[in-house]
Design a protein that fits this description.
- This protein is 43% helix and 19% strand.
- The protein is built from 14 helices and 16 strands.
- Strands 10-9-11-8-7-12-13 form a seven-stranded parallel sheet, with helices on both faces. Strands 5-4-3-6 form a four-stranded parallel sheet, with helices on both faces. A three-stranded antiparallel sheet has the order 1-2-16, with no helix packed on it.
Length: 419
Amino acid sequence: MSELVDYMQQLGKRAKAAARVIASADTGVKNKALDVMASEIELRQKTILDANALDMKAGKDNGLDEALLDRLELNEERVQAMAEGLRQIIALPDPVGEISHVNARPSGIKVGQMRVPLGVIGIIYESRPNVTADAAALCLKSGNASILRGGSEAKHSNQAIAACISKGLEAAGLPVEVVQVIETTDREAVGELIRMEDSVDVIIPRGGKGLIERITKEARVPVIKHLHGVCHVYIDDKADKEMAKSIAFNAKTQRYGTCNTMETLLVAEGIADNILPELAAMYQAENVELRGCDRTCQILPTCIKATDADWDEEYLAPILSIRVVGDIDAAMDHIHHHSSGHTETIVTDDYSNSMRFLREVDSSSVMVNASTRFADGFEYGLGGEIGISTNKLHARGPVGLEGLTTQKYIVFGEGHIRQ
């Protein structure tokens, strides 16, 4: 057995043992660990930022693009947000052990369901070091052990955050193996992790399309995933113009390098001439490159002609594709063919159109009169998320505590035997 394989197998064995401990841990114990982790992150802010500065310098030297650098960068606000995210999770109800749907059967037994942890969760992610804290905390509160594999570009940041996590586990009397951060940057560690069927129960990849396609193709362990975020905003011809401008602008420009950023704007023919010139001026003031269909280019002469590939592109950059459509049916047809199933928004004052959009658009989050940027676990009240799933099984949308558990049937009897 090679040194790397042996290392990974040992991680798996320790995680499996730790999973039994954390699965039965009291809510108060888990919350104490999270509280100490949050405090340690605040106390060690300078250490974390210094480590991140090393990663940022290496990233720039190695030619990381702007979207990845944006995801990699930490500042005081983002470090504080990590600590706040942990405290949000403390405030959430513990799903483990929750009993529901108890029904008496004709035989006299009572049958219900109990929510239980998944076990050991392997999480593979790129760039964002805040995922280390978010993932560890969500897995911990939901009673799971975790094996975290961050990208090599964030190795210093991840290890600095991992030290805070270990302190929290120790303070609560929990095994430090409840959360293990893979130390090696060898890419083969990922290949080994996704084949560890005996010790890992589920894999959650967070990163670029290439990474997730590889994990999905090669994994022997079940995967909760989303490939990419091609999100749409549709401005209906019955939309409030000022609201539509505000939402469409925010959905694109509030932050470019995230999976819930709008990549395609769909505008109803009846409002296009009126709203697009003003929106274009707002985008151009932010240096957003516009690519449009023929009708869009007629309305906006400076717009670049969109190619077929643009409608399927996750830019993660200040680039936006725009299509003028005949009506809500044409908009939903476009979304059906080009969406990645992440998040779509309709801006409209028409109740019937809004309800049709909610019912008929098949994405993990569908919104009415709100920016796609709200498709986020923290904003949904989940206290953070471990990822956004476009799977239909077993979790869909932002994956918080409940998405990291499953259910088992429980039966109450009083000496009942089957006749």
